Amino acid sequence: MGIKWDEFFVTGDPLIFASQIAIALTGFGIVAALTYFKKWKWLWTNWLTTVDHKKIGIMYILVGILMFFRGGVDGIMMKAQTAVPENSFLNAQHYNEVFTTHGVIMILFVAMPLLVGLMNFAVPLQIGARDVAFPQLNALSFWLTFSGAMLFNISFVIGGSPDAGWTSYFPLAGKEFSPGIGNNFYAVGLQIAGAGTLMTGINFVVTILKMRTKGMTLMRMPMFSWTTFITSIIITASFPIFTVALALMTFDRVFGTHFFTVSGGGIDMLWANLFWLWGHPEVYIVVLPAFGMLSDIISTFARKTLYGYKSMVASIVMISVLSMLVWVHHFYTMGNSPAANSIFSITTMAIAIPTGVKVFNWLFTMRKGRIKFTTPMMWSLAFVPTFVIGGVTGVMLGMAAADYQYHNTLFLVAHFHYVLIPGVVYPIFAGLYYWWPKMFGFMLNERIGKWHFWLFNIGFNLTFMPMFFLGLDGAVRRAYTYSPETGFGPLMMLSAIGSIILAAGFAALCYNIYYSARNSERNIGNDPWDARTLEWATATPVQHYNFASIPEVKGLDAFWHMKKNNEIQPLKDSEVEEIHMPSSSWIPIYMGVVFGISGFLLVFEWTIAAGVAALGIFAGMAFRSFDYNDGYHVHKDEIIETERKWRKLGKGVKSHVS
């Protein structure tokens, strides 16, 4: 496209210039620290080339937390801009770029990595497996996600950010109205990351169907494993649609085709349909695993078996089906027929029924329970009323006639955040506090956790509740400024103050991680929550082979009943056998790097160079085809020594519980 070298870096904005300096200094600091402490080999051997599902899960979580910071900064910048009328903190173009990247990062590079990270860590343990079905594919999934995230994120300092909104509607996202390369970052970066997510979905479908331990029938699986299974099916059904849409977008922008270009005979509504055929199931891709985590956590801290287990499973399946049948409600106002709007109004409101079933099951699980108000449980309790607000306002928006009034206002923005933050972020926080000791061998500080809880909850409601009233009063979304005469100023300022409190809550989480890593007790046993599922039947942190002997399951809440009925059989040294495990591999990270380089060149429309770089992808695939490394065996002596250490017993192991 003939971009000039002096246009390669984004210049002229002091905020972006400061970011460029910060990125350079951070990169230099990381390299210097790794060199000074001689950690390069450790990093390469233990993390960058690992295929261990637990370490891959932790890396996903790390990426999600980093992206949370980036997306949160974007959100605060938007709130700073709209805090007062006719503000000039951000100009219109910069504001468009900020709210575009905020939406994409929060959904695809915060919610997805955090959830997939927790799925990676916990689900194989919950079903009694030693790893996922395809360990190298799992590592490749992570590195493609990371590569796509980094490619998308560098856009604001190199080349320019996408600016057509997180939905990237055509014709606005086409070359006619967005001639720069910003939206190329959207098209290519999301394709790479989406390929990684699709691989994850396939991997977990196979893992859950084929690798459950003896006695672990589908109807004995923990609810988080069930929701992961259904989510993975939705991923395999919906992500190919988005991949095709992004490929067509790339062809339009890079190669001059006209799939979506109205002036060239294309159909702009084709993009809207393809996008939301993926986009609405994506809401349930992030919400359903969160529901599963809440189910396991509420059951643990209510000290009761989950109420209505079979109805919970049925509601998950019903939600997954309906999630593919409601996409048109996202464009009621774009000229659909009354019949089409009526049909999709019905399917949209119908999805509230299985969701309501789940809410009542959680409430009945807590009824007459001996509830322990730990930090994970507090997040679970806060989820219920705040998520219901999002659900009720969703039913309002689901009515086509009413949606004509709500659709282009801040009311919709408030609804969306009341669904995704309580419905996804709250359960993620609950899951992080819940599984943190199993990941790292120490618990996050409960006192600081309570500060995190209250600051984030107060900040969230103060940020987004005023937006319902602003929307009903006519405040439109996507507007970077407004006049004093509108009267929006006081509530906009209140919302901006709320975003600062919200950010303070996230800062409390980050401080909690730092404080707990330095000061928390390490001798916490393998089951600090007195939990119910199999992941707590292992060491803390979990040994690399997961289980010395594969457990046998006889019912729901397997570990709970093993403890209660004293059914845990002693593990004798003579019964220990060698364990086969997959070897680490450099191929996944290599593929991620090559995908990133090829994608970067394609973004700048240097197609020949991108094609040459893409040959490296095929080289990696060919090398993998001739890789005959079948893994390694963990010797009996190592297993016996490891098991003795965490069980704190002498010769022979008599108990799973410290």
From TrEMBL:
How does the protein associate with the membrane?
Answer: Multi-pass membrane protein
Q: Which PROSITE patterns match?
A: COX1, COX1_CUB
Q: How is this protein annotated for GO cellular component?
A: plasma membrane; respiratory chain complex
Q: What parts of the sequence cross the membrane?
A: 15-37, 58-78, 98-125, 137-158, 185-209, 229-251, 313-332, 344-364, 376-402, 414-436, 448-471, 491-514, 589-622
Q: Which UniProt keywords apply?
A: Cell membrane, Copper, Electron transport, Heme, Hydrogen ion transport, Ion transport, Iron, Membrane, Metal-binding, Oxidoreductase, Respiratory chain, Translocase, Transmembrane, Transmembrane helix, Transport
- Would you kindly state one Gene Ontology biological process term found in this protein's UniProt entry? electron transport coupled proton transport
Q: Which organism is it from?
A: Neobacillus piezotolerans
UniProt protein name? Quinol oxidase subunit 1
For this UniProt entry, what is the primary localization, expressed as one broad class? Answer: membrane
* Gene3D superfamilies in UniProt: Cytochrome c oxidase-like, subunit I domain (1.20.210.10)
